[in-house]
Amino acid sequence: MIKEYARISCNSIKDSFTFHDLKRKIISKRGCHCEKCKSKTNILIADHIIPISLGGKEFEESNLQLLCSKCNKEKTARDIYKLNILKKVGFIEMCSNYSWWFYDIEEVLDSKIRPRGNKTKLQLIEEHKEIIDEFLKINFR
Question: What is the pTM of this model?
Fold first, then answer.
């Protein structure tokens, strides 16, 4: 069962629609199967390819994929891992209202805050270059 997350209005559409409506539209276009493992199932999760917490667009059809429960759990685990790396190096910081501050590379390198552990910021950046490059591409184009 899908929960209704939010209602939005678009200039091109007169009526408001829900996330559930968007998921239904995607299923009708792409079919009722997991887009990762291709298994056919009646229970699909509309997953954000680029998580909202990392700058992804919430109601953009191109940022959504239909995943079975197993594939969604695996992707969520990877997203959490990426989020933790970005927090550790200093690219993101959680605010008191559960939103995020995003920092670019210069701000991270200029910051006086040292990362946890024995590694320097430059060592951590080099070690996790792929994750950091992806984050910077999404948020600082």
Answer: 0.72
Query: HSE on the CB side for 139, CA within 13 Å?
Result: 22
Cα–Cα distance measured from residue 73 to residue 78, given in angstroms and rounded to the nearest whole number: 9
Structure tokens that stand for 30 in this block: 């792409």
Contacts of 22 (CB under 8 A, 6+ apart): 46, 59, 61, 64
Residue 35, burial from CB neighbour count under 10 angstroms (0-12, 13-18, 19+): middle
For the chain (141 residues), the mean pLDDT of every run of 10, in chain order, is 31 54 89 93 90 83 93 94 89 75 85 77 90 85 63
Are the C-beta atoms of residues 56 and 63 closer than 8 Å to each other? yes
User: β-strand 13-18 against 7-10: which pairing, if any?
Assistant: antiparallel
Which of 113, 139, 108, 110 is closest to 126 using CA atoms?
A: 108
Q: How many whole angstroms separate alpha carbon 23 and alpha carbon 21?
A: 5
Domain boundaries, the chain: 7-69, 76-139
